[in-house]
Structure of SV2 related protein b:
Amino acid sequence: MRQSSAVRKLISCRNISRTVLQLRHLATLEFKRGNDPQFTDYSEICNTFTKVPLTFCLVPFTETFTVHDALESFGFGKFQWKMSFLTGLSWLGDAMEMMILSILGPQLLCEWRLSSYQVALLTSVVFAGMGIGAPVVGSLSDIYGRKAALMISSCWSLFYGLLSAFAPVYGWLLVLRGLVGFGLGGAPQSVTLHSEFLPEKSGGICIPLVAVFWALGSVFAALLAWVAVPALGWRWLLALSTAPMAVFVCFGFWLPESARFNLLAGKTEKAMATLAHIAKENGKPVPRGKLIAHKRKGGGRIKALFSPQYRRTTLLLWFIWFANAFAYYGIILLTTELLQAGHLCERTDNEQSCSLDCKYLTSADYKNLLWTSLAEFPGILVTILAIDRIGRKKSLALCFFMFCLSILPVYVCIGRTAVTICLFTARAFITAGFQVAIVYTPEVFPTENRALAMGTCSAMSKVGALITPFVAQVLLRTSVFGTLSLYCGFSLLGVIASLLLPIETLGRGMQESREAGEETTNTTGTSNAATQECTP
C-alpha cells in the first residue's frame, strides 16, 4: 500500500512508540486544509497506528461548523434584540400576575370576608399550578420544541387569566387562579429559548437584561393597582393585567424554533433555515461548510438529570431555586403585610386576625409597594456587575448572604421608612440571586435536557413560593421573630448550596449533549491533551 508523505515523515521517527507519543500531543492542534497536498489527508495515520487521538482522526475533509460557531460569528445583533423584547413580554406578563397576588389578598379579605388562611391559599394555589405546569411544559419543550410549548402555555394563561376576572365566588376564583398558575409554569421556557440564540459572551449580560421586563411588570402591576383598584375594583385589575400576555401571544408567531433543538432532533434543514434567518437579520454571512451536531439521546427524560454527571448539580439547584422563590415572594408578601399593619412586632400572640379588622390598601401603601418594586432594577444591576466578574457560584452566594443581612434590622421594630429601605435592599439582592440562577441553569445543562431542567427547577421554586404565603401572611401575625428567622435560615442554606455547586459556567459554552458536557468537564483544569482515542 502506497503511503502518503505525511505518514512516511512520521514513521521516520526513531521508533513507533515515540511516534504515537507525539501523536497524542497533537490533539490540541487545529488541522486545516491547505494548498500543500501532502498535508490534506491524514486518514492513513488512523489506519497505521493502533491508538491515535480521536480529535486527530476526525480531521474533516470538508469544512464543518456547529450552531455554537454560527452564533459566535453572527454576534449580538438585530435578531437578538427582537428576541429579547418578545421573550421579555412573556416575563412582563408573568411578573404582573405574580405581583397582583400581594394586592388581591387584602382586597378580598375585606370584600369577601375571608380568613387569613383563605387568602394564603389563594396565593398558594397559583404556585401549586405553576409547580405542576413547569415540569410538564419543560418536558414537552424538550420533546416537541421550545416555541410550541411556550406559545401553548401563554395562550392557556391568557384565557384563564381573563376568566378569573369574572369569578362569582371564592371557590371559582381558587380554581381559575390555579389554572392560570399551570400556564405560567411555562414562562421559564422563554429564557430557555432566548438563551439558545445568544453568543457565548452575551449570556451573562443579556439574560439579566431580559429581567428588566420582569421588573417593569412588577412596577406596572403596582401602578395599575394604585389606579384601577380604588376606582374600578379588583376584577378590572385581573383583566387588565393580562394585556402583556395578549401582546406576546399576538407577536409570538415571529419567534423561530431553537436551532439547537432542531439540530438535536434531526431537523437539520429547519436549523439551517433558522441560522440563515439570523444571519440575514444581523447582516452577517452563514458559515461555510456542513452543519454538524451531537446525536440526541433521550431528551425530556427526568432520569437524565440524575445521571452521575448531573445528580449533585440538579439537587443543589433545586434547593437554590426553592430558597430563592421562598425568599423573593416572601419579601413581596411581607411588604404589603408589614406596611399595612404598621408595627407588627407590637402584636401579642393572643391577638387574632379576622375579617372584621381588615384594612384596604391605602394610597401610602401603594406608594411604598411601588418603591419596593423599583428594587428590581438595582438587583439586575448587581447581577450584571457581579456575574461575569466573580462567577455564577460566588454571585449566588453573595446575593443570599446580603439578603439575610438586609432583613436583620427588621427584628428590632424599626420605623416605617426604615422598614421600606430594608425591604427594598433585601428585594434587590434576592432579585439578583434569582437572575443568576436563571443564567446558570441553562448554561450548566445540555440542550437535550435544558428545558426539562429549567422546568423542574422552576417547579421547585414554586414549592417555595407555595409555602411562603403561610409564613408571610399567617405566621407573621403571631410571630415576627419566627417569620424573619425562617427567611434568614433558608438564605444562609442557599449560601452553602451555591458554593457546593460542582461546575462554574463562567467562560464555558453551552453543551449540546451529555457527552459534550463530559468532554468539557474532563478537560477543565487539566492539560489540553485529548482523553479519547480511536482504534482501527
User: Anything to note?
Assistant: The beta strands are 52-53, 64-65, 290-291, 533-534. The chain has a mean pLDDT of 77. Residues 78-111 form the longest helix (34 residues). The chain has 23 helices and four strands.
